[in-house]
Amino acid sequence: MQTVLLYCCCQKKMYVCLFFSPVCEIEVPERLSSCYEHLQRYNLIERCVSVPVREGTEDEIMLVHSSDYLEVVKSTEKMKEEELQKTSAEYDAVYFHPTTYRCAKLAVGATLELVDAVMSGRTRNGMALVRPPGHHSQRNAANGFCIFNNVAIAAKHAQKKYGLQRLSIYLILIVDWDVHHGQGIQYIFDEDPSVLYFSWHRFEHQQFWPSLRASDYDAVGQGKGKGFNINVPWNKVGMGNADYVAVFLYVLLPLAFEFDPELVLVSAGYDSGIGDPEGQMCATPECFAHLTHFLMQLAKGKLCMVLEGGYHLRSLSESVCMTIKTLLGDPLPHLSGEMAPCLSALESIHNVRAAHKQYWKCLAYESTIPLQDLSTRSYQTGKAESEQTGAQFITPQEAGKSHNDEVIKTDRFLELHMKKMMSLKPPVRTAVAVGESLTHLLPPSVQIEKGMDAKELNITISGFDAELAKEEKVLKMLAVLEKIIKKEVTNGLAKTSVAPLSLAFVLKHCSDLNVQKVLCVFVGDMDMKIDLGDGKVLLINISAKQSEQSNTKYNIFFHWKEDIETTTFFSAVTGFILPVAYSYQPDLTVIVIGHNQTFSNDGISLLLSLLQGLAQSQVLVLIQDTELKLLQDILMVLTNDFTPFFGSYTPALKENVQMIKELRQQLQQEWKMLQCSGK
Ligand code: X5A
Ligand code: ZN
C-alpha cells in the first residue's frame, strides 16, 4: 500500500515577506525547497506517489472562513507594498505578499487532495508539504503566518464528503505536534464532539506566544464538545524524545483509541524539533518517526500529514524525511538519549489526565488530586528542576552561545545522526518458519525458511537439550532469528510446539551472537524458569494464571484477570509494556504467544504493532498451537501489507487497572518511562 506526497512549490521562491517584519523572517520559501532536496537525497520521492496540487475553491475555504475574510485575503493580490504592510499589521504575526492568496489556495487544495487520496483508498497515508501553514488562522483572521486553516478545512471537507455518504457522524482526530498552540483549530471545533483536537505547545505559564489562557490543560472544549479538546502545555523549554513519547503513551493514545477516529489528520509542525529557534525543544528527527508510527495504528492507518511550522531548515527537512520514511513502512530508527521524562513534563501529563478524567473511560481510575495544588507548586519551583532529557543534545540556552553557533552545532549533530538512520531497510521484510502444511497460506512477500544445518548455525547448546536443538523446527527458528540479527530481514515468525523451551533456545542463541538487550514479551503460561543473563534479557510475562512470583527489574510477571469483555488489554500495553520497553531500548524484541493465552487477536496484533517501534523494528514472533486466523493477523502486521483495525475500545477491569498502577509504582525507579505524574 502506498504513500502519497503532495508538494506545493508555491510559485517557486516568490512568496516571501517584502518588508521589514522581524517576527516573520523565518517563514521562508526555502522551508519547502530544503525538504524536497532532502527527500530527493534519500530517494524518498520516487517511493511515494506524487499527486499534482490544485487550488482550493472558495466554497471549500468557506467551510471554515467567513466570506468577508475571504474577500480581504483576495484583495491583497492587487496590493502594493505599502498596502500589504498595512493589511498585515491588522493581524498578529502575519505578512501578505501578492502571491499569498494563490499560495494559500494551493495549500488548501493540496491538503484536500491528500485527504481524498487517502479516503478513496488510492493510498494508505500521505503528506502535504505546503505553505503558508494553517493552524493559527481563524474564521475571520489570519494569525501566526497562517492564512487559511488547511487542516480544519480538511476535517470539515472529509466530514461533509464522507460522513454524509454513510449517514453517520464521521469522527476525526487532529494531532497538532507543532510547538505552537493551534488556537485556530481549537476555536473552530471547541463545541464539536466529532473532532478530537490534541495539541502540545510551548506555554511557559502563558508567557509564550500566543499567550492565551485558553491554551492551558483545563481548556477541555465547550458545550457538547467538552472532553474533545486536549491541551498539553509545555512549561519549560528543552523537552525531548522521552517527554514526547510519554505524552503519547499516557495522554494521546489512550484517548485516541477510545475515541476511535475514522481519519487522523496531523498538523505536522517541526518547530517542536531540535534546533528550532521558535520552539527551543530537543526532540531529534527519529522521534517524529515514532510519533508517526503510533498514529499509524489508528483509523486503519488512514493518516494525513500536513506541514505547519518548522524553521530550522535542516532539522525540519530531516524530520520530514523520517516522517515519510515511516509512512512508507520502513523499520523505525533507535530513539537516542536517556528515556526519562522530566518533572515539568510529568506535571503537565498529570494535569491533562486529571482535567480529562471525567470525560474518558480510560482515565476513570485516575487520582483526583486538586489541580490547583500542582500548578501552584510548579510556579514555586520555577526553574529549579534538575533532570532534563534533552540536555545531552544541544540546549539552545547553553550559556555563552550565540544563536548562530547553535545552528551550526545542531547541523553537525544532525548530519552525523541521519547518515546511519536513513540506510535502514533490508530487502525482505519478513522471514517465516512454519510446517509444510501452512506454507501455501502465507502471503507472497514473505521469505520461507528452508532451514540450515546445525553446523552452519554454530549452536552451542549442550547436554540434555542438545538433541532437541537439532530438530528441524528449532533449526529453522534459529535461522530466522539469525537473519533478523544480521539484518537480512526485519522480522520473522516461527511456529513452535513448546514455547518456553523455544524461547530458551532463542535467548541462548542471542547471547552467543552477542545481542546486548533482548526484550521478551511472553503471553500465556510459561511454566519454566529461563536464564535471563543479567540485564541482557528483559522478560515480561502476562498470564491469566495467578502466581506468587515477585517482580524484579528484568523479570516481570503480571496476572491479567480474565474477562470476556476486555480482552484487548490495551491499558497494559500503553500503560506498562511500552513504557518499560521504551525505557529499556532493546536491540531485539521477541514476542511469544504461548499456551493458554486468553487475549483476543486484536489485542495481540496491537501489541505487536506497537512493539515494532522498538529495536529498529526487529521482532521475532514465536507462536504455539494457535488458530490460523491469529497467524494470519500476525503476518499481516509483520509484513506491513495492511493496517488492521484493532477492535473498539473496552475499558479494562478495575482490578487490572489497579494492578498496572501498582506495578508502575513498584518499578518506576528502574524504568523511568513508567512515571506519569509529577507527584
Ligand atoms: C505555524 C507557526 C508560528 C508563529 C510565531 C509567531 N506559526 N511569533 O509555526
Ligand atoms: Zn509553530
TrEMBL record:
Domain Histone deacetylase: 27-326
Database matches in Pfam families: Hist_deacetyl
Name by which UniProt lists this protein: Histone deacetylase domain-containing protein
Natural source organism: Phrynosoma platyrhinos
